[in-house]
Design goal:
single chain, seven-stranded parallel β-sheet
């Protein structure tokens, strides 16, 4: 039998190193009682608008910040900064995903201990990000009503690596003849028991429910924190 291709060996080493850094980040976030939330989706799902609204809703009551990844430009960071929360752009160049080392480096100089929530918006892609742990506690996979109900069947790995599916742009559901039941069935076929939220960042539909869900997770995080 011929040995494994060199490319496969390198990929294994890269992922192993990524996991080491991600584990250290997760331990740091938990020690500092920060709920780290990452967002993955295809381009155009409404990820940045959704995150801007989320930051705006939480900022009056919590310490929030965001890291945002993109191949080029700082357009998304400028949009998120309108929320008033600290935001930092991570430009990946040719990489179609964020890696744990990028998160670690981006946090240098930030007063992370003052945060309750740290959001990480990944590069728009449903393939590459699925393999890279970023040290997050919660991974959201977003898909809009305009993308097709069979998206989970086409990209099962990203759904299996996520914790919650968020259906976005519900304000366009009727216009595109969106079949909510079919999408939910496909999500459950790929990831049985997966929590599904539906919302519209434009109209505000479902945003309060999502905000309440995050607040509940943060309360549970604080209750589970060891006493020293």
């Amino acid at each position: 039998m011929s040995p494994e291709p060199r490319m496969v060996e390198i990929r294994k080493n890269v992922l192993k190193q990524n996991d080491v850094i991600a584990r250290a980040l997760r331990e740091r976030f938990r020690a500092e009682e920060i709920l780290a939330v990452s967002l993955v989706s295809s381009p155009g799902s409404g990820k940045t608008t959704f995150l801007e609204k989320t930051l705006t809703m939480l900022r009056p009551h919590y310490g929030v910040a965001s890291l945002v990844g993109d191949l080029a430009t700082e357009n998304d960071a400028r949009r998120l900064a309108r929320s008033g929360a600290p935001v930092k752009q991570i430009t990946t160049g040719t990489l179609c995903h964020l890696e744990a080392g990028m998160i670690q480096k981006a946090l240098e100089g930030w007063e992370v201990g003052k945060l309750d929530f740290l959001f990480v918006e990944n590069v728009g892609n449903l393939v590459c990000p699925s393999s890279y742990d970023l040290g997050e506690d919660l991974r959201l996979v977003l898909l809009s009503v305009t993308e097709g109900e069979d998206k989970p069947l086409k990209y099962p790995t990203i759904f299996n690596s996520a914790d919650v599916a968020v259906i976005t742009k519900m304000d366009l559901a009727a216009a595109v003849d969106f079949n909510e039941q079919a999408l939910k069935q496909n999500i459950q076929a790929v990831r049985p028991g997966m929590k599904v939220l539906k919302l519209s960042a434009k109209t505000g539909e479902g945003m309060q429910e999502f905000s309440d869900y995050l607040r509940k997770l943060q309360r549970l995080r604080l209750q589970a924190a060891p006493a020293f």
